[in-house]
Automatic annotation (TrEMBL):
Belongs to the TTI2 family. InterPro entries: Tti2. This is TTI2 protein. GO terms for cellular component: cytosol; nucleus; TTT Hsp90 cochaperone complex. The gene is Tti2_0.
Length: 130
C-alpha cells in the first residue's frame, strides 16, 4: 500500500506471488491466503488502470479459490472459510469496478447455473455491487 501507483512496476512479479499463494491451502488458519487476498485488494485499488488486461488471469484464480474453499473438506474452521469467501468476493467487486462491469457480465452465466448456495451468494454480492 505504501507504494501506491508505483506498484505497477512490480505488477507481474507481485501477481505471480499472489496467485501462487491463493492456489494452495496453508492450513486451518489460512493466514497466507487471507493476507494475499488483502494484498490483492490493495493492488487492485492502487493499480486499477492496469487491471482490465489482467482480468482473465485474476478472475480465473479468484473463481478457483471460491470453488476450492467451498469444496475442500479439510480442518478449516467455518469463520475462516467465510473470511476467504468474503475476501475473494470483495476482490471480484473491485475488479468489476475497474473493468467497467465486465466481471458482472462474465459471472452472469455462472450465477444462474451454479447450484451451490454459498457461491451463489458471492456471485449475487458482485452482481448487486455498484
Amino acid at each position: 500500500p505504501s507504494l501506491g501507483i508505483l506498484i505497477v512496476r512490480h505488477l507481474k512479479r507481485l501477481e505471480r506471488v499472489i496467485l501462487g499463494y491463493l492456489e494452495v491451502s496453508d492450513g486451518p488458519g489460512e493466514e497466507a491466503r487471507l493476507a494475499m487476498l488483502q494484498t490483492l485488494q490493495c493492488t487492485i485499488e492502487h493499480a486499477w488502470p492496469r487491471m482490465p488486461c489482467r482480468l482473465p488471469v485474476l478472475l480465473k484464480a479468484l473463481l478457483r479459490l471460491l470453488w476450492d474453499v467451498h469444496s475442500e473438506r479439510g480442518p478449516t474452521p467455518e469463520p475462516v472459510r467465510a473470511a476467504l469467501l468474503q475476501g475473494a468476493t470483495q476482490c471480484l467487486i473491485l475488479l468489476d469496478r475497474c473493468c467497467q462491469g465486465r466481471v458482472k457480465v462474465l459471472l452472469a452465466g455462472l450465477h444462474s447455473s451454479c447450484e451451490e448456495t454459498r457461491l451463489q451468494e458471492c456471485f449475487r454480492k458482485v452482481q448487486e455491487s455498484t
